[in-house]
Automatic annotation (TrEMBL):
Main location: Golgi
Coiled coil feature spans: 77-118
Keyword Membrane: yes
Membrane topology, record value: Single-pass type II membrane protein
Keyword Cytoplasm assigned: no
Lineage: superkingdom: Eukaryota
Name of the protein in question: Glycosyltransferase
Length: 435
């Protein structure tokens, strides 16, 4: 019986083994392995062989870090200082290079500009002649006329100008009486090329009704407000903006203030060899044409005497401009400064003409000529010198400018009475100055 039972069990086991395929056996083995691994990991978290090496490594790192932290501030400070010094030196070197490059660029541009100007003015390079025969260029070439600047004005100038030259006067209603007196002298002297720039409607109507050539600009808010309401100096400053178009159109302009009497045609007495010909505020040869003024500074001992060059200013109320680049640049410079600052136009006019180039400033390269101070006479010369000299009283000036005296209209009338009507005592009642 026992033998029969054992046979049955072995038979069943044999049947079970036959029923499990190889793939199932592999899965079972993997599962058993994972289970045993989890059990050992739980029972021996540090492994079968425990060591102190991780702890010792951590302690070593901690000690090393503490040591590094102890010396780090001083070392880092020194490193940063060295870096800063290096950067400063590098920055200084870069700044030096920038300055050198800027200077080279400035010199290159200046040289290019100068070369262009010389080429335009001189053309082919000349050779120097024998001693005593060399003369520098005084007369700059004129600009090419550009009628697109102001076609309406161009048409007027074609009718008024003589040989592309004309007198230009700015006037508003405040100076109408002086303008009327001036116009009468223009007609007596038979000067055809005379144009009034009317700054308001009243002057425009006066000119039209008296057969005087007139030009009224297109509306311009900045100019019109001054032109209609401005006083003598304010109106005088406008001319530097207005005259530019005349030069761009290729015309030479003889600018005149209204407080001027014309006794002869001024165009018969111009040289036309310079960019600017101007009357002077000087009253004798020294003040009009320049002189060496010695300044005495006793404290300097041996070098106590300092020589200075002086000349009395040009009068910005009567000057002749040829249509050249320097003349236009002069107008631009003066107009720009007057627009930005409250300055006297005559002072700015002279500063731009006479101040030389120096560091951070490039002077105006314009040729200039001082008019004969007896022919183009100011009122100081007339009332302080000429009227008291028997010989000078016989001389007939080209124009007389009542620029030194505020009582302009009565003195203008007296000048007419003396030089035109022949009234010998017409000038006698006036003081030398304005007292």
């Amino acid at each position: 019986m026992m033998a029969g039972r054992r046979d049955r069990l072995m038979k069943n086991a044999s049947n079970n083994n036959m029923s499990i395929n190889p793939r199932s056996r592999i899965i079972i083995a993997i599962g058993i392995g994972i289970l045993m691994g989890c059990i050992f990991a739980f029972l021996y978290p540090h492994g079968f062989f425990h060591t102190n090496s991780p702890l010792s490594t951590t302690d070593h790192f901690s000690n090393s870090q503490t040591s590094t932290l102890d010396c780090e501030p001083d070392e880092r400070a020194n490193i940063l200082k060295a870096d800063i010094m290096g950067l400063k030196e590098k920055n200084a070197e870069l700044r030096k290079q920038v300055r050198e490059l800027q200077e080279k660029l400035r010199l290159a541009e200046q040289g290019k500009d100068t070369a262009q100007k010389q080429f335009l003015a001189l053309g082919a390079q000349p050779k120097a002649g024998p001693f005593g025969t060399v003369k520098s260029l005084r007369t700059n070439p004129t600009v090419a006329p550009d009628e697109s600047v102001n076609p309406r004005l161009a048409k007027i100038l074609q009718e008024v100008a003589v040989r592309k030259e004309l007198i230009v006067v700015l006037a508003n209603a405040y100076v109408r009486e002086m303008l009327e007196l001036q116009v009468s002298t223009i007609k007596k002297a038979d000067i055809p090329n005379y144009l009034v720039v009317a700054l308001d409607e009243e002057i425009a109507e006066y000119c039209k009704s008296n057969n005087v050539s007139v030009y009224m600009r297109d509306p311009d808010k900045g100019v019109d407000s001054i032109g209609r309401n401005g006083g003598n100096h304010a109106v005088s400053g406008l001319k530097f903006r207005i005259l530019r178009e005349f030069l761009q159109l290729g015309y030479s302009v003889l600018l005149s203030d209204v407080d001027i009497i014309f006794l002869q045609n001024p165009f018969d007495h111009l040289y036309r060899d310079s960019d600017v010909e101007s009357m002077t505020d000087g009253h004798n040869n020294m003040t009009a044409y320049g002189y060496n003024d010695v300044f005495d500074e006793l404290a300097m001992g041996w070098a106590r005497y300092a020589h200075t060059m002086r000349i009395w200013v040009y009068n910005s109320g009567f000057f002749f401009l040829r249509p050249t680049i320097p003349s236009i640049e002069l107008l631009d410079r003066v107009a720009d400064r007057l627009a930005k600052q409250n300055l006297w136009d005559q002072a700015v006019f002279n500063e731009e003409l006479f101040f030389p180039s120096h560091p951070e400033y490039e002077g105006l390269h314009a040729s200039r000529r001082t008019m004969d101070f007896y022919s183009f006479m100011n009122s100081k010369v007339l009332f302080k010198t000429v009227r008291k000299d028997a010989n000078l009283k016989k001389f007939k000036p080209v124009i007389i400018h009542i620029n030194y005296h505020p009582d302009k209209l009565p003195r203008m009338k007296a000048v007419l009475e003396y030089y035109v009507d022949g009234k010998q005592d017409a000038l006698d009642s006036f003081p030398d100055g304005s007292q």
